[in-house]
Specification:
Glycolipid transfer protein, GLTP
Length: about 210
């Protein structure tokens, strides 16, 4: 599913469709939003390879849960948490491919992407994307990565293209249009992030190993 050009509209539509009236986060649109973000990472070249590979692996684990025998429990993040917790804490901590642990990894990466996209949106033409990206990374994913990964990441960010090149990658027309659509998309991503954060905090799942 991860081949093809990145389209910001696709990400916007997916995250817009993620949250129900009851503030449940639906997994199908969540995962399709992630495929869009993965295409975004892949369009930036090898720099983000280590993050996009990991995201692909995590999204595929979630798709297997979704399609598996227990698929009905993986309709929303809320039903997934309830189902996996009902199996007991040992089961959750002992399973590297549990939905909760897998989503937590995606959730942490989502914060970084959200901060990065917001930085691109509010920046100006001369803004250095490497700085925006490094600041976003340090405020999110960095604390979950070992030193050697952090070092490689911040080095890789130095090779990032200009802000205008990023806005072109969005595939929605001129930079101003990309900035407008980011303004539309980011609140939906923030909303999904916020609800997930709250749900995981409530059940003490934010530090699952």
């Amino acid at each position: 599913a991860a081949v093809g050009a990145f389209s910001l509209r696709e990400v916007l539509d997916a995250f817009r469709g993620c949250v129900t009236e009851r503030r449940e986060v639906l997994l199908e649109p969540y995962l399709s939003g992630w495929w869009g973000l993965i295409r975004f990472l892949q369009s930036l070249g090898a720099v983000f390879g280590f993050i996009s590979k990991d995201a692909v692996a995590k999204v595929q684990i979630m798709e297997r849960h979704r399609r598996g025998e227990q698929g009905q429990h993986y309709e929303s993040l809320q039903s997934m948490v309830e189902f996996e917790l009902s199996r007991g804490p040992g089961e959750l901590r002992g399973r590297p491919d549990s939905g909760c642990r897998t989503v937590l990894r995606l959730h942490r990466a989502l914060l970084w992407l959200q901060l990065f996209l917001e930085g691109l949106r509010t920046g100006h033409r001369e803004s250095r994307t490497s700085t925006i990206c490094t600041d976003s990374y340090n405020a999110s994913l960095a604390k979950h990565h070992p030193w050697v990964v952090r070092k490689a990441a911040t080095l890789a960010f130095c090779a990032l293209p200009s802000r205008d090149a990023f806005l072109e990658v969005m595939n929605v027309g001129p930079p101003e249009q990309a900035v407008d659509m980011l303004g539309e998309a980011i609140p939906y991503i923030q909303s999904v992030y916020g609800i997930t954060q709250e749900l995981f905090a409530q059940h003490s799942l934010l530090d699952l190993p």
